[in-house]
Automatic annotation (TrEMBL):
Top-level taxon of origin: Bacteria
Domain spans labelled CobE/GbiG C-terminal: 2-119
Name of protein: Cobalamin biosynthesis protein
Biological classification of the source: Bacteria, Pseudomonadati, Pseudomonadota, Alphaproteobacteria, Rhodobacterales
Native source organism of the sequence: Litorisediminicola beolgyonensis
Pfam families reported for this sequence: CbiG_C
InterPro entries linked to this entry: CobE/GbiG_C, CobE/GbiG_C_sf
Length: 124
């Protein structure tokens, strides 16, 4: 299964998230089958609207599940806020299950409000 993980700012819109997903899917040449983000952001208006728009199942990942994920990107802001190099990459890996692998580094939406990374795995 391919999981698209997201990190995003409060200013992110449905379009920010959609643009990030499109860019990640194009970069990796595949389609996401599930979307994921950290649990406290999963119910935000923008992410909920995005989930409705895509029709994809949502995985709300605990903050604890982000810690220790082997991300390709190292963002100082993500490290300080969430103890991970990339929320998008860590959320994708956590939601894709044990042994998941990133298909590439995160991509950033054109408005710079959202990031998306794809991981392949076998969620429980």
């Amino acid at each position: 299964m391919i999981v698209a993980g997201f990190g995003f700012r409060r200013a992110a819109t449905v379009e920010s998230l959609a643009d990030a997903l499109i860019a990640a899917e194009r970069a990796q040449g595949c389609r996401a089958e599930r979307i994921a983000t950290v649990a406290d952001k999963a119910t935000s208006d923008s992410f909920a609207g995005f989930a409705t728009k895509t029709g994809l199942p949502v995985s709300a990942v605990s903050s604890d599940a982000l810690v220790g994920q082997d991300t390709r990107t190292r963002s100082e802001a993500s490290e300080a806020a969430r103890a991970t190099g990339s929320v998008a990459e860590a959320a994708a890996l956590a939601a894709a299950g044990p042994g998941a692998r990133l298909l590439g580094a995160r991509v950033i939406s054109p408005d710079r409000h959202a990031t998306c990374a794809l991981a392949e795995g076998d969620p429980a």
